[in-house]
Design goal:
The protein is mostly helical and 311 residues long. It is 65% helix and 0% strand.
Length: 311
């Protein structure tokens, strides 16, 4: 975990917008090609199956042999990407239907990428939920192919940035926790799962479902790579000079951690004591940091500091 400057946030925003553009373009291609398919009903079942496979590849932005319209289609796709509100219900419904009906792992991966890209937009997050798409995507967590699970987690990461979606996704929290604990340390799947839980943990509505995994989370914070663990300079981030949004997120994390540690029943033997001691031992350098932040000129920050220092 580290302080993120404005340039980094701008870069992440640009990447997010680019991902959304890819999703919108993919959905446009899906609709166009599906209409062409319906106009050619005289084809045999074998031809229709080939067309469906080509359709999936086109939806995912892959170039199919014989397609020489890449430049023109890309330009048109970028134009469409400027109007995300124009995305229609049947587009996503068709994509989700393909995901349910396909048993090919490569096809499922490609479709999950498309769904994840489209879920970068709030309106699509709601639309996917209304179409029953959350369960369609979450059911892919049981896929035998690890790469499919990763793509499903990535899609859920975007879908979980929605309070209404979180309420429905909560039933998969135990499975996500199980995957995180069972998979290889620092693996792509583990990191993707942690991202989903991070989004779901923005509110404290579902923290009680994760308390038994807190010792494992503490272990990951120490043993994981930079994408998971807290850096040695972790305490330096709790400073008034740090970007407010970063500081607030850090304080919420610590406050939530403390509250849920208190919810654990009985004596818990943590595999990692260092982070717990640094944050909650008394007296500690962290206590001094919190005292200084009580002077911070922002009520949200003060509120989170109060949550941490209160018994």
């Amino acid at each position: 975990m580290g302080a993120v400057d404005e340039g980094t946030w701008a870069l992440r925003l640009a990447v997010g917008l680019l991902s959304g553009a890819v999703g919108l373009y993919a959905l446009y291609k899906l609709t166009t090609l599906n209409q062409q398919q319906e106009e050619q009903m005289g084809r045999g079942s074998g031809d229709r199956q080939i067309e469906k496979q080509n359709l999936v590849h086109r939806v995912s932005g892959l170039k199919v042999a014989g397609d020489n319209r890449g430049v023109a289609d890309t330009q048109q796709g970028l134009v469409l990407a400027k109007s995300p509100d124009g995305l229609e219900k049947q587009h996503l419904q068709m994509v989700l239907g393909l995901l349910q009906g396909s048993s090919d792992s490569c096809t499922r991966e490609l479709i999950l990428v498309t769904v994840g890209n489209s879920a970068a937009f709030t309106s699509n997050q709601d639309l996917i939920r209304s179409l029953g798409g959350l369960s369609v995507v979450a059911n892919c967590l049981s896929d035998e192919v690890v790469s499919v699970k990763v793509k499903a987690m990535n899609a859920l990461n975007n879908l979980s940035m929605n309070v209404a979606n979180q309420e429905e996704l909560k039933i998969w929290i135990p499975q996500i926790l199980e995957i995180i604990e069972a998979t290889t340390l620092n693996s792509e799947l583990q990191v993707a799962g942690l991202r989903v839980l991070t989004n779901i943990s923005v509110t404290n509505n579902y923290h009680h479902m994760m308390t038994n995994s807190i010792p494992h989370f503490l272990k990951l914070l120490v043993e994981g790579t930079e994408s998971i663990k807290a850096p040695l300079s972790f305490l330096l981030l709790f400073d008034s000079c740090v970007n407010k949004e970063v500081l607030l997120r850090l304080l919420i994390f610590v406050a939530n951690l403390k509250e849920n540690l208190n919810l654990l029943q009985g004596s818990v033997q943590y595999e990692v004591e260092s982070l717990h001691s640094v944050l909650f031992g008394n007296p500690t350098p962290f206590s001094h940091k919190l005292a200084m932040l009580m002077l911070y000129q922002d009520n949200e920050v003060k509120q989170q500091v109060a949550r941490i220092i209160s018994d």
